[in-house]
Amino acid sequence: SVEPYSVLITAGDNDTFPLWYAQEVEGIRQDVTLANLSLMNTKWHLKQLHRRVTPAFDAAHAAAIWREGTWNRPTTPALSLNEAAIDSLPEAQRVPKNGGIRFDSLQIAFGDEVLTLQDLATIFLIRDNAGQRPIYFSWSDGDYPDRTLGLTPYLITEGFARKLARVPVTPKDSIIISKGLGYVNLPRTNRLLWNVYHYGAAAKQRPRGWVDVPSRSILSLYGVIYGFGAKALREHGDTVEGARADSIAQAVSENIVSHSR
Q: CB atoms < 10 A from the CB of 99, how many?
């Protein structure tokens, strides 16, 4: 879903371990740095993020959508804090009510009066990579970046992930507003839906439904993204692709419902 050399912030086991398998075993998109919110409450994962050397982007084996640009390989760690600084981080920190922090034109607004270690780490990742690496939040994170960091005005949906802009987003030809997905880069999302994702595997008929209950929430993301994507496409005049996306969302829903009967 993400541009070369991105930082992709994920939520937990089910949306991260398959990606690590893809990277470490299959050699897929090793240029992407995965930062797991759950594990960013541990200092060993933060030290991993500091130590990791970013591999070169392998355009020959990447999706065609990413072969078109020129991408600069970062030479600095995704997390600049050294191990001593990481060890000194608190498990939680009280912050002023309605407080926040600004990095140039990007304003983080704290949603609570206490920030946990994962929140602090996310803020450091934003500080260290804004302008250096693209930063994305997986849609599997839910409303975490909105609720905890007040980043809604800066987030642009691109398929299954939301790219963090450096300035507040304004709608234009390629950026539209969608109920459910917020700001959406519609052309890029459309290409991801049909040219990158394996939507046929997600939507194929399963008489027994989706039998692996713990990962069902990941399958349901296909229903959410294709369903809201269908509405956005129809609202902007593409009724054919809108109907196609809606059929994928319905097929995914049927797989989930049939299992719960």
A: 13
